[in-house]
Automatic annotation (TrEMBL):
S-adenosyl-L-methionine binds at Y29, G70, S121, M191. This is GTP 3',8-cyclase. It comes from Loigolactobacillus jiayinensis. Residues 7-220 form the Radical SAM core domain. Gene3D superfamilies: Aldolase class I.
Length: 331
């Protein structure tokens, strides 16, 4: 079987497919306050295109698939997509990233279809803060979604984007949540994607203080290994049921171990999250030879690292960050 390597000899076995750019929320790190014009239906990959694309990737050594958005559970055919991808030989890990709002209605069907793991966005436990960060969301719906997913036996990670002045004073509460909840809390550094640089600089906070908070509060923790595809460094507090992880793309780059490719809702492949380079692979989905050629072309152009927020701008090789907002990429 062909395997996918880039010019730095990094093996790629993981794809993240954004199956919609639509979302009922307007999270501050994901899209602007006024929202975005959503892609018309015909611009978004169809169910058949997604399945055929994954079949192509499976023949190239891809074994892990994550569905993202926007909000992937908004698609009426998301269960069918998961079921059909689950049936593809070689695909052995299927997960999704969601805001959790639709889990009470769809979690059981997704589990039955073959979805194994969930990453659920939860940036605060405070209802008013949640409403502010998401620009209108109801935290009760998310917490209910988490409860339902846990009862069904999903492996659950809670994504917490840490933003100065918005939720960085809740880190201890999240850490304590792991004591009696079998989840992995993932603290994620706020990235300068789709946000004005000056705004990002004011709101960015590194994650070293997570350890400081543990030490100040007598939380005994140790590193652990967790199943999954992400770049998180994971830890467990003594006697806790759950765990916590740190994802710090700014303060501690993890590009040297990057194993993923991203496909946008409109069928473009992004080898690197940050840069604007992307290749339209949609038209090549029916042509496996051309499809493989384009995928390898993207890998051959993949940079060594993303260079986000470099202090010396003159050292940045590629000066064109992506034009897309996170909701149009899928994270």
């Amino acid at each position: 079987m062909k395997q996918l390597y880039d010019r730095y000899d990094r093996l790629h076995n993981y794809i993240r497919i954004s199956i919609t750019d639509r979302c009922p929320l307007r999270c501050v790190y994901c899209m602007p306050k006024e929202g975005l014009p959503f892609f018309p239906t015909e611009r978004v990959l169809s169910q058949d295109e997604i399945v055929q694309m994954v079949e192509n990737f499976a023949e190239m050594g891809i074994s892990k698939v994550r569905f993202t958005g926007g909000e992937p559970l908004l698609r009426s055919d998301v269960v069918d997509i998961v079921r059909r991808v689950h049936e593809i030989p070689g695909i052995d890990d299927i997960s999704a990233t969601t805001n959790g709002l639709y889990l009470p209605r769809k979690a059981a069907a997704l589990k039955e279809a073959g979805l194994q793991r969930l990453n659920i966005s939860l940036d605060t436990f405070d209802a008013e803060r949640y409403k502010k960060i998401t620009r209108g969301g109801n935290i009760k719906q998310v917490l209910k979604g988490i409860e339902v997913a846990a009862e069904l036996g999903f492996m659950i990670k809670l994504n917490v984007v840490v933003i100065k002045g918005q939720n960085d004073d809740e880190l201890l509460e999240f850490l304590n949540y792991t004591r009696d909840h079998n989840v992995n809390i993932r603290f994620i550094e706020f990235m300068p994607i789709g946000n004005p640089l000056k705004t990002w600089q004011k709101e960015y906070v590194g994650l070293k203080n997570v350890f400081d908070i543990c030490d100040e509060n007598g939380l005994d923790y140790k590193p652990i290994e967790l199943t999954g595809n992400g770049p998180s460094e994971n830890f467990k507090i003594k006697d806790a049921v759950g765990s916590f992880g740190l994802i710090h793309p700014i303060s501690n780059k993890f590009c040297e171990t990057c194993n993923r490719l991203r496909i946008t809702p409109d069928g473009y492949l992004k080898a690197c999250l940050y840069w604007d380079e992307e290749i339209n692979i949609r038209q090549a989905i029916p042509d496996k030879e051309e499809f493989q050629r384009l995928i390898q072309k993207a890998l051959d152009n993949k940079p060594l690292n993303h260079e986000m927020a470099m202090a010396d701008a003159d050292k940045v090789v590629n000066k064109a960050p992506t034009w897309r907002h996170m909701s149009q990429i899928g994270g």
